[in-house]
Amino acid sequence: MSHHLEKSHHTADKKPIWFRGLYIFLFFVISYVVILITFFVVIFQFISHLILNKPNEHLQHFGESLSLYACAIMQFITYNTEQMPFPFDSWPTPEEHHNEVKAKRSTKK
User: Fold this and answer.
1) Does some domain include residue 1?
2) What's the pTM?
């Protein structure tokens, strides 16, 4: 009887691991979409820079938040965090990131 309980307890522990695996696969696919979007942002930014002699500020802001999102995906799929990225969390913004960096630096002093 106790062997049966141990087996069911062991199976219950595996369920979250399988869910994590599904989320890893999902975010791995999303990361390829992010790379494709980044490619187009780079192309449009380059063209904008050629034509206007300066980078497009909106594309810069979007590119920075997109890179933060890519970083959040990589942190999750490599088991460096349990925090799932967007759409399970808010879309990362450069302002939030800069505030977090400042807060971490001030606590280290």
Assistant:
1) no
2) 0.77
Amino acid at 26: L
Do the domain assignments include residue 45? yes
Q: Where are the beta strands (DSSP E) in 1-109?
A: none
28, part of any domain: yes
- Alpha-carbon distance of 26 to 22, in angstroms, equals 6
Task: Please give the span between the terminal C-alpha atoms of the chain, in angstroms, as a whole number.
Answer: 56
In angstroms, rounded to a whole number, what is the distance separating the alpha carbons of residues 83 and 75?
Answer: 9
Q: Residue 79's domain spans which residues?
A: 21-108
Q: Which residues does 37 contact at the CB level (< 8 Å), separation at least 6?
A: 66
- Eight-state DSSP code of residue 90: P
Instruction: Tell me the per-residue pLDDT of 29-60, one tens digit each, with 9 for 90 and over.
Output: 999 999 999 999 999 999 999 999 999 999 99
Residue 16 forms part of a structural domain: no
